[in-house]
């Protein structure tokens, strides 16, 4: 095994096969539906179906003990250190919980609160793990994760979001997360209009970019398909991938959320 174990949480939206391929430890964000803890194996489709039936939802960050268990297990397996990468600390205490656990860990733990959220954190985590697998040091991987977190940009829509961390516009207002907060970028009346605005925002870059397009419930997939299709036709997009907005993020953005992250190629 690598001497450095990479850790994140489920809000990073890393697919299970990606985490397994790279040996990334993923700590779950707790989710409650109608006040009751959701099953650990609750899939996205069932989760969004529950929301559509009117279920209330709440999330809570992992506590320090959950991170401590992961760090201790890594040490027991022979790891020399841990790189723990989480979302922007201005919107969540997750990185703070990780930092508290790190102080008591049996091996050194570097905690990164990336300047991004959702799949942006997944991108940072994946990049760090791939760099480590290629021979990078823990500090090099940390630098890479921090740099990517400050560089990756995003746009998304969240019509009818439950509220809280994400505004809950009734329409298809295009939003963006930057500098620790979500801001409206453009008001739109339809999913098609929102897709056009998001495409324009992304392709305003004057350099080659990589893009990841995501959607929440199955009902939002056609809009994500349109967004991905329009971007795939652009010569400036060198690589395009898809991801699913899972329950730990969909609890805040709602079932109809669609969006994209992009970063320099």
Major sheet characteristics: 6 strands, mixed
Mean pLDDT: 94
Q: Summarize the helix and strand pattern as letters.
A: EHEEEHEHEHEHHEEEHEHEHE
Which CATH-level-2 architecture of the largest domain? 3-Layer(aba) Sandwich
Number of strands: 13
The low-pLDDT segments are none
* CATH topology annotation of the largest domain: Rossmann fold
What is the CA–CA distance across the termini? 29 Å
**Can you count the helices?**
9
Class based on secondary structure composition and strand pairing: alpha/beta
Report the sheet-strand fraction.
25-35%
Q: Measured on Cα atoms, how large is the radius of gyration?
A: 18 Å
Order of neighbouring strands in the sheet with most strands: 10-9-8-13-11-12
What is the 3D form?
globular
Could you please describe the fold and organization of this structure?
This protein is of the alpha/beta class. The protein folds into 2 domains: 4-150, Rossmann fold; 152-264, 2-Layer Sandwich (Hypothetical Protein Tm841, Chain: A,domain 3). Helices cover 38% and strands 26% of the residues. The chain has helices spanning 16-22, 44-52, 64-76, 94-103, 119-133, 138-151, 191-203, 221-232, 247-253; strands at 4-9, 25-27, 30-33, 36-37, 57-60, 81-86, 109-113, 153-157, 174-178, 181-186, 209-215, 237-244, 258-264. The longest helix is centred in the middle third of the chain and has 15 residues, at 119-133. The radius of gyration is 18 Å and the shape is globular. The model has no long low-confidence stretch (mean pLDDT 94).
